[in-house]
């Protein structure tokens, strides 16, 4: 019993000594002792179209006048994630399909489908997918899927 009390006493003394040596929390400054904040100019962000975003693992997909622009066509994922930044500059909704390989025909597209998104007219959208490295194809098609793709771009994902 005496040994336990002695150990507790030594621990308490050690804690108090450490607080005295190293100090505790900093005391709060009174209002008159606090620094006066100074105004600094911060640059304003400029609006950048979703498809023009250039950062790690972001694939820009721009739809305009029936044409598909994908940049870059060789991209390195951010971890295992690839972000898709869509921009539809047309006056109609369109479906963008991201599929593995180079599928031909509706059944092959459905079998190799990684993700698809309907991008509304004059809208931007951003999605992310977890994928493996390889060859992929970005395809444009009507949202009702009754017609074949109107355009396709091949992409290499690292």
From TrEMBL:
This is Uncharacterized protein. It comes from Solirubrobacter ginsenosidimutans.
């Amino acid at each position: 019993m005496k040994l336990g009390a002695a150990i507790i006493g030594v621990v308490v003394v050690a804690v108090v000594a450490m607080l005295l040596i190293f100090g505790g929390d900093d005391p709060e400054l009174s209002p008159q002792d606090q620094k006066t904040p100074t105004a600094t100019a911060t640059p304003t962000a400029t609006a950048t179209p979703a498809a023009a975003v250039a950062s790690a693992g972001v694939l820009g997909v721009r739809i305009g006048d029936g044409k598909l622009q994908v940049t870059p066509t060789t991209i390195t994922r951010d971890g295992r994630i690839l972000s898709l930044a869509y921009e539809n500059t047309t006056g109609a909704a369109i479906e963008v399909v991201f599929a593995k390989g180079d599928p031909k025909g509706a059944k092959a597209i459905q079998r190799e489908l990684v993700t698809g998104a309907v991008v509304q007219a004059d809208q931007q959208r951003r999605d992310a997918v977890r994928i493996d490295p390889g060859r992929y194809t970005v395809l444009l098609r009507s949202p009702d899927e009754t017609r074949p793709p109107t355009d396709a771009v091949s992409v290499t994902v690292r």
